[in-house]
Amino acid sequence: MDYFASGQFTYDWTSHHLKLWEELLRDKVDMATAVLEIGSFEGRSALFFLQFLPKSRITCVDTFQGSEEHVERGSKYESDMAEVERRFDRNLEPFGDRVDKRKGGSVAVLPALAAERRLYDVVYVDGDHSAASTYADARLGWDLLDNDGVMILDDYRWGTGLPAAKRPAAGIEAFLWQIAGEYELLHKDQQIVIRKIPISGTSVSPTKSFTIAGRDIGELAGGALSPPLVSFVVINWNYGRYVGETIDSIRRQDYPHFECIVINNGSTDDSAEVIARHIEGDPRFRVETLARNHGQLGAALWALDKVNGGFVTFVDADDVLFDNYASMHIQVHMALQRSVGFTSANVAEMDSTGKALTASYQQLNLNRPDAKRGLRGEQTVLRLPTVSPSQYRLLDASTATVPRWQIGWLWAPGTANMFRTSILRLLRLDDGGKPWMTSADGYFNTICHAVAGSALIDMPLSGYRMHSSNDFATGESVEGIRGGTRDYAIRSQQFTYEIVRFLVEQSDRFDWILGMEFWPVVDRVTRENADRLRDYFDNELAVEIFRRNAPQLRSVFGARGFSKEVMARFSGAQARSILRAGFGGRIPTRYLHKSLSRDFRAFLKRKRKR
Hints:
610 residues, 23 helices
């Protein structure tokens, strides 16, 4: 068959590939095949695909400005690119709406196709010949290729006399190295042709969802070890307009081992009807109803008795999870160089209607002092089938473990966080029987990190919605502008005293659990740097917390330890009132003398500064 009889062309770089293409694509002749072509020029290859695959539709991506060899004066392939585009349009015109022409650079067009949720059965990469451009086209095109799809990479042996940076080969080889384990090689010569190996976790049994060094854990452990269960807890208060989308996003998770509790937290709108409609028929979901609003933290504490998973995410009822949210978080938890209290992934910020505002949250930063980048080797950890080798390597490059002594707010907000349930129960403020009108992450992130550290994943795995009812922020995060509202910041800071109160009241229990870390943890949950701790504790609320619990603190830490830690945080009359309470009304002379001496030295220091 002459595929090009009716066309107008100046060059033929295609015909010698047709026999190979016909052989490799024969099984798709009767299919409604979707084809993506990166680099179309005059349309020769597009004409082949449209005629050999009569039920196909093709997306043609080209700048129609030409590569270096097309625009360089005196080049063998110098071309009038405006005329090239006109020939392309004339050649493809008979195929009407089977052709979707996307004029523009591939690095802009291909992500836009991904945002449209496009998938293709065939991807042909024949764009710019530089190694970097070839790599980018292949990498972006791979994410658009469906399972079992075929990718054709052209010009592998082109330009052998040119520097490596100007030839496709280096870009193709880097791409193939990155996706090792994800493809089957069908042909290697002037063109590389590969097939995408299906990767799916939704149809595998609980004992066939994880591997170690390529071997199934069900076989290795005789069925005694299964993947972790993730518990999603959706806390909804009057978000009937959003909660349906939130539930649907959880249902779409590519990690099948989860349960979801939807808490209707004293809502007075149509939330109950929306929730019932969206969870209908799915046994993984159940509804719990609180007669009054317990606040997000109160509802989260209440839910800890109800969850069965070893990991839990508290989902804001106006946010959405990306399909790979659970699998990426769990893979990181399974592969970190040491276990942490929780993982926090980046978020894409969106407006009230779901339109994207940013692709990341400004506060999340991997380059922090003492943060340790990377994961363990992929052959040494529990591996999910839904996380491909290239995705694992991307996680490896995009994850950092932050040690517990790092101070401040380090994480993305709300839904972005997946906690170890055991740590949450260990640090549970109360049983959730009373309202706590504050955010769950404001408490759990702070105390879990202070005790067990955390890990950051610099990859958006959820959508964080900005709107007028968002208690934290109504606008996207922008460098140099405060993200949260003033009221939220004040309430959040005040709530740290409740965390201090909890630790001090439970000092007899936490002294055993934390040992020498108890007092550093108390200081970390304040979120204040060391030079600001005195100012933080110079507060009547802090004084009252220590004064009320002074007898217990003295009993747990002994007279010397109690006095040392009190004087490290308080001075003057405040310190002596706490010491007096701890010693039953009268401070022993040695500790009274130390307190007065410390105050005198502080006075002299201030005087010298003047």
